[in-house]
């Protein structure tokens, strides 16, 4: 097996007496489609922040492709290929849709320091391509402030992809999207090349099970279970933590190993 | 007003067009307006008396000065209250170079720009690490420090008497004695400076500065180190303020400590807000108005110039909350920002 792209070992983060992320050890192999699920407050978003570097770990190490990046500040980690979408849209509101994607794209093309706008042609072309992919091509010239919530989520994804990431962290990308929009998102993410490793936090389990090849369940900051989607569906402990007892039936959408447990 | 204003329909097929179409139409208007303004500015000395020409020269200098501040305030989102420090350092440098070394126009002006940039780079290292009110206070402190130095180093700067006896600007060895020639020199340098600032603002670098202004945390997660960009913007703004200061010294041929002080900084910040921060041309217009009110109408009002300025400012805040640039925005609401 190849070295994991993302490797967390013993990662913890506490806020005073509260330990939001508690001794999480997790390996994500290259090309994986890994989902993080867990009830609210399980520490999923905090774990993402520890990976991107916007928050410091209290203990443990974060390694990207074998290199320890625990001490690196956020921009440097981003330059090594970590990109993310945030749970609450974080965009440049006063600027146009295209300009938002361009800010992320121009870093990849050596046009960042050029004073001549024309040199940005390559970055512009890439930005437009991404906007077409997420379905915002017609809105390129619109200020972000005028976008709907769903459109902003789509733009988030385009901005994150414009970084040409090795590791893409998606924090509830489908939240607030219509079913059609989230179906489009799933198709887009499924079409991503193997060179992009995806870790996704999502409450919409349809999205999770459509995408993920492996799932980690977090509960109260700890890893409850890591396994294949089927294993996770089957686990009684997961159902208890995630949904509470007696609501396990919500997991059962047809045949599956879960049936075995009920019968 | 609206001879040709079809609603901006975004065509679904051609993504490039959706951004280019409103731009191109506005661009034609912008170019025409710009050319008319240029033509008018170019012939000012032929039709206006020397005193008036001198006033317009000062308006131009302050326009460049305000544009340099706009790079910080409007583009990067760093409101500075000490920007006159770089202007003053540039003015003193140009004056001293002219007195002691060479009055060659380009030499004095370039020396002033370099001095402004170096001084800003030396202090920006500290100032740019803060933000918001702290940045305001730090830049205020730096400005006052420079002001105090200008006053106390009287052997170099002439102290509170000011640095006087600055020789007139020379071009290729010939002194420019007529107000008209000085004006044309100022106009040429201001236009070049404005063009350079516009290039900076519309470059990818300028885009990064706007990104930092709008959402610094997100820029970090996109892989940018905001500190470097803010620091560079601070130094560049200092350089252009120094350039304006150098022109000022050659124009009025006396530099006072007050030119580096709080009053000048505050007046300039007012000009930027009045004109509409973040547009470059708005602050240039704002500065021209401020100079006009202060220098031309002010003296005829028994020293109540600042009062008039205050009234203009209050009126502007109520009527034009986004400055003069907001007026243009009313006409083309679809293009939120056009850097011209």
Automatic annotation (TrEMBL), chain A:
GO CC field: plasma membrane
CDD domains xref list: ABC_Mj1267_LivG_branched
UniProt keyword annotations, A-Z: ATP-binding, Nucleotide-binding, Transport
InterPro entries tied to this protein: AAA+_ATPase, ABC_AA/LPS_Transport, ABC_transporter-like_ATP-bd, BCA_ABC_TP_C, P-loop_NTPase
GO molecular function, one term: L-phenylalanine transmembrane transporter activity
All copies of domain ABC transporter, residue ranges: 6-245
Name of a matching Pfam family: ABC_tran
Signal peptide location: none
GO terms (BP aspect): D-alanine transmembrane transport; L-alanine transport; L-isoleucine import across plasma membrane; L-valine import across plasma membrane
Domain of life: Bacteria
Alphabetized PROSITE patterns for the sequence: ABC_TRANSPORTER_2
Name used for this protein in its record: Amino acid/amide ABC transporter ATP-binding protein 1, HAAT family
Biological classification of the source: Bacteria, Bacillati, Actinomycetota, Actinomycetes, Geodermatophilales
Automatic annotation (TrEMBL), chain B:
Membrane topology recorded in Swiss-Prot or TrEMBL: Multi-pass membrane protein
Keyword annotations from UniProtKB, A to Z: Cell membrane, Membrane, Transmembrane, Transmembrane helix
Record's compositionally biased regions (Low complexity): 11-20
Region feature (Disordered): 1-20
Transmembrane segments: 29-48, 60-78, 85-103, 109-128, 178-201, 231-255, 267-293, 305-330
GO cellular component: plasma membrane
Main location: membrane
InterPro entries hit by this protein: ABC_transp_permease, LivM-like
Protein name stated in the entry: Amino acid/amide ABC transporter membrane protein 2, HAAT family
